[in-house]
Amino acid sequence: MRELWNKWRGWMHFTYVKDKTPEEAMKTVPDGADKDDCEWLIKNHFYTEKFKKASQRNSKNRGNLTMPHRIGSKPMREIIYQMGGKDGNPPNIGTIFHETRKQIDKLIEPETIAKYDEICEVMQSDPSLSNVEVVLKCFRNQSHGHVVGYGGGVKLKHLKGPSTKKVEREAQLLEENQLLKNRLSTLEDKFQKFEKMFAAQEKNDLQSTSSHTTDTQQS
Q1: What count of other Cβ atoms lies within 10 Å of the Cβ of residue 39?
Q2: Which entry of 139, 155, 160, 206 is 20 to 30 Å from 189 by CA?
């Protein structure tokens, strides 16, 4: 839903707001949209200094891309779904990379071609690698909310699953927790035994004192 919302805002900005004054932008309302909502979005989002700076920065970054995808606004996950993901057999990262960056039926940019060859080489050298492992080998670290081959809104931790170290640490903590519970149970048993011993000793002491007092009085 967040991705759909972001894409709709991007489409609205490009279609109705870009290169226009706020007054000009508010003259047209998209079909199905509320006029007041659109005016609020224009005034409180598109024309804020924060948005303008981010828009300029993103435009500059897009201009610096050496391996741009060519699928427009179509989500990469939709392509993965259509190419076998819906049947539980998603394509490998090499196919995803080629399909999302090809122009007509082939790759154009030299950097894109070189990266595709690198991806294929890594997959061939170790077929057991998952898509995410290939991405990490070929593209190094991924940003917080974007993974190469999966698009925006995807976090690396959701694709990788729990790490081996994390699983091992959780197992270790569970074992330590169980040991502590067992030790606590043992200490409670010992404490109850000591309580019974002290109670019995105290009872014996009272009986002994009472008996001694009686003997003294009789004497």
Answers
A1: 14
A2: 206
Sign of CA dihedral 113, 115, 121, 124: negative
Question: What are the beta bridge partners of residue 82?
Answer: none
For 146, the enclosing helix (H) or strand (E) is strand 146-147
Helical (H) or strand (E) element with 56: helix 49-63
Pair of tokens at residue 218? 């009789």
Q: At what angle do helices 131-139 and 93-101 cross, to 10 degrees?
A: 60
Q: Spell out the residues 6+ positions from residue 83 whose beta carbon is closer than 8 angstroms to its own.
A: 90, 91, 95, 96, 99
Two structure tokens written together for 102: 């090809």
Q: What is the pTM of this model?
A: 0.47
**Cα–Cα distance for residue pair 154/139, rounded to 1 Å:** 16
| Residue 113: both structure tokens together | 């071609």
The crossing angle, in degrees rounded to 10, of helices 110-125 and 131-139 is 130
* Interval 8-51: pLDDT, tens: 888 888 888 888 888 888 888 888 888 888 888 888 888 888 88
